[in-house]
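2024-03-11 09:14:02 DEBUG pipeline.ingest accepted 1 chain
2024-03-11 09:14:02 DEBUG pipeline.ingest length=79
2024-03-11 09:14:03 DEBUG pipeline.predict start
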Amino acid sequence: MTAYVLYQLEWILRLFVAAICGGLVGYERKVRLKTAGIRTHMLVAVGSALFMIISKYGFFDVINHADVSLDPSRIASQV
């Protein structure tokens, strides 16, 4: 149970760091009077981080089957 909670905290921390980084980029664009601002960049950064988390951890049970050929890194290449 403890390991599962630590994995969840790691995922939440990754999403939080992505939101902070996206917010910093959005703030810089807001200061320079560009159209896409803080909220837009935060949402894009969190969405991209979520796709990366899913591509890294979401297919462990499917990859272990011998009949399935799946490459989770292809999701990351499309982000």
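2024-03-11 09:14:41 DEBUG pipeline.report Residues 2-78 form one domain.
2024-03-11 09:14:41 DEBUG pipeline.predict end
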